[in-house]
Every structure is written in structure tokens, then in C-alpha cells.
Amino acid sequence: MDDNTDQNDATNADPTTESTDNLETTQAVSELELGNRNPSLWQDMRTSEDWWAIWCAGLLLIVGFIAVWMNAPDPPPPGSKEKVSVSSPLKPWLSKPSTWRENPLHAFYTPVEVVAQWEQEAAEAKKKANAEAAERWGEKSEPKEAAKPEATEPEAAKPEAAAEKSPPKPPKAVNTIYGTLGSFLVIGLLFAGAIHIRGQSARKFLTAFPVVFALATVAYVLSGQSVIKAYNLEYALWALLVGLIISNTIGTPKWLGPAVLTEFYIKTGLVLLGAEVLMSRLVALGLPGVFVAWVVTPIVLITTYIFGQKVLKMESRSLNMVIAADMSVCGVSAAIATAAACKAKKEELSLAIGLSLSFTVVMMVVLPMVIKFLDLSPTLGGAWLGGTIDATGAVAAAGATLGDEALEVASAVKMIQNILIGVTAFCVAVYWVTSVERDPSAPRPSAMEIWYRFPKFVIGFVVASIVFSILHAVLPLGPEMVSAMIKDSTKTIRSWLFCMAFVSIGLQTNFRELMPYFKGGKPMILYVCGQSLNLILTLAMAWLMFEVVFKDVVSP
Fold this sequence. Notes:
Pfam families: Cons_hypoth698. The protein is an all-alpha fold. It has helices at 3-12, 18-26, 31-34, 41-47, 49-71, 112-136, 138-146, 149-156, 159-164, 177-197, 202-223, 226-230, 235-247, 262-274, 279-294, 296-311, 317-330, 332-342, 346-374, 378-388, 392-400, 404-418, 420-436, 447-453, 457-474, 478-508, 511-514, 522-549; strands spanning 109-110, 174-175. The protein has one domain (3-14, 49-74, 87-97, 176-549).
């Protein structure tokens, strides 16, 4: 049985409001998927939400890469150290609201004089932050700084050095109006086509989609305010709040249901994320990063799940598993994949995501302070951040407060950890079919039964990671082209999809439905205990790998 079918069945079995019932009904796939028989592979690929997430993301990746490839310059001659700049022609047409301070309209258009003022202030702030970081770890940097003078003089005459000393480019006005409208059209038309082919009403989707997109835009504008951004209160939190306010006050209108496609948005976004998880990141840190990300994570996940079942006596196994995966792997992305594999209810997924976002905000502020207090090295501190903070964006923000080296290590560890999304979903699907839902008197489930349960969009995530890792490695301008595709097009679309998914989660969530899951405070206790174990084991493993066993592998 397809995992989406099981989730809808489980959800409809609960007492919900009329509005929520309508949302679930309008998101039901085909009658075949709602039946009691497993569809054929071809039928599944034509109608399943998981497969269509792959097709939609695949089309976006293909178009994005072709656009960059056709716009790429000729590669430099072999042995040349000339730097080649590659960009996507799609960049001006795909964007999000930008940062603003006093005037929210600056999120869509910022005059050149305002940009110049901000750039000057940002440069001064960065210079001050780097000076503080250098002063803090000056003793550790002095030996390496002392080794540089001999190479400094000849390097000064190189073209690269001259280029670095060239005057900075003049500031330009920031205009995200066309990019925001372009993102709206691309996502709206792509999903409308997919919905039509799946046998649902594209007209109803297109009627409701502008409202969902507008709410996502509001979330982006709120998160882009400079003070809010400084605290890294990201769009996910605001998108969730915007949806929750509507659903718990005036209620989510019935006609909005066809565009409230939480899983479709986020599954497509996760396949796009696969193209960003490159194997070169794994190679960059080597064994130390692998040990921190791949040894600690499964230990924490399994231990937390057992603790929830045996000690806390969690009533819902699926809630227990989603929280454990959310906290130990990589936050919301892992929660979505795991929820699909274990048929978690939408209320359970909302609860897990809410816990993750709340603790992410706290940890990204507190952990850097703890690292500075303990006087940990940038490498060790970055590895600790990357292995424990759930959201990739929050990892980058927290790492940046410790300097460029910590930022690089933290981001690399988190991306290595992200590779486990697919592995986790597969293992959870196998465990659920063979142990949790198995009737002791029934025959052992077949491999095909596991296949039907397995969230197929994870296949797209893995394939995208492999394909773009190969392109990154073998093409003459592979790193530049893949980076340009991600930065200028697919990452923007992925962010919009995630933002609309969080809005949709909020629109589908009612606090009255969540309250039973907070019984005895068990979800909170589970998350705190699991994250505490995660913090201890990750720090211990990072110290062992980066400071003892492979001390000189990653150098600044």
C-alpha cells in the first residue's frame, strides 16, 4: 500500500474539523491508490505523489542544468589557474524577497543608495567579527601565519592577487519583483500540470495556489527583516506561524484545500535537495566527518526510539520515531521522510517539526556561546554544530559566528549527515513492515510489501545526489556549473517549496488536535533527552576524530 494512502486513512480515522476533512479529501490521490490492492509500477509512477515529486524535481534539475551549461564559457587551458565565472540565465527570473530594515517594500526593491550603505556596514561588521575570531584563536593560528611570509612576496605579483586588490564592484539596486513572480509562475504551472495528469482538478489548484504562495511570501518578508534575520528566525518558523494563526482563528477555507499540498511540496523540495548533497563534501572532510555524521546519528536515533518506547512508554510509535529521526538526523527533512515511511499522522509530524524549530532557534544561539566559553577550536566547534543543530541554514548561521573555518566544517558535517535521509527512510520502512505492523500469525512480509511502503521520492533524492556528484567531478567546469545551477535556480525553487510546505502544515494543524499528543509532556522529554545524548556523543566523537585521531586532516 502506498504510504500516502495509509497516512490519509490514518488521518481520516481521527475526529477532525470539517475544514481539515476537506483538506485531506482534496489531497487524496487516485481511486487506485485508495483501494485495497497495490498498484502496478507503471500505474504507481503515473499517479503516485511520490513519483510525481521525482518527475517535477527532475524536470527542474534538467532545465536548470541545461540553462547553465548553455551559458557556460569555455574551460581554461589545462594547468591554468584562471578562475572562471559561471552563472545561470534563470537567476533574474527566480528569486525570493530580500533583506530589509525599516521599509518592508525593500524586500522587493532596494534602491542603490540603500544597498551601498548596507554593504559598508556589513563589511565593517565582518571585519570586526574576523578580528575577534582571530584574537580568540590567535595562538592556534600563529604557527601557520608564520609559515606564510616566504610565499607572500611572489604571490603578490600573481594576477589572482592583483584581482583581489582591484576595487570592489559598485553596488546595484536589488529587485526581486520579477524573480518572485517568476517563481510563482514556474511552481504554479508545473504543479498544475502534474495535478491534471494525476486526474485531479488543476483549475481548483490554480484558484487556491496564489493564496498559499502569498502566505509564503509574507513569511519570507517577515524572516527577511534585519533584526529577525540576525537571530536567524528563519522562514520555516514564520511560515508555520502564519498558517497556524489562520487555521486556529478564522479556520482554513475549504476552497484553499486543493493547494494545501504539504507532502507534495516538501517531497519535491527534498529531491531538489539531493542535487545539493554532493559526495565531494564527504571527501573534503574524509573519515573525521564521516565518523561524526554517520556513527553518532544511528546510535542516537535508535537509543532515543528505545528510550521512548521502554522508558517513557510513548503511546504512538510513529510519533516516537519521527521525533527521534527529526532530532538525530537533520530536522524537518528527515521528519518528513520518516513520517512517510512509518505512516505518521499529520498532527504527529506537525508536533515533531514544531519541537525541531523551537530547539533549533535556542541551540543556534546558545551552542556558539558554549563553544567560546569552552575555548574549543574552530574545527571542533564547527563539527559539533554540524552534527547537532537540526536545520542546515541554522548550522551555517551558527558556524559563521565562530569564523569561516568553523562555518566550512559545520556545513560539511551537516551535508554529510543529510545523506542519511534516504538510508533512514528505507530502514524505518523495513522495520515498520517487518516488526511494528507485522501480524505474528501471518507470513513474513515480502520484499514487494516493503517496496510499496518505501517512500519513493527518496529514490529521487539519492539519484539526484549521485548524478550531480558525477557531473561535479567529471565535467571540465563541473564544480562551477553545478554550483551555479543550485545557487541561481534550483535552491530558490526548493526554498519556495519548503516555505509553502510549512504554510500548509500550519493551515492543516489545529491546536485542539495536538493537545492529546502532549500528554504527560512525553514528546518534550523525549526530544530533550535525545538531544542531550546527541550533544554529548557528537562532541566526544568530534574531539576524538578532529583533535586526536585525524588531528591534521582538516587544516585551516
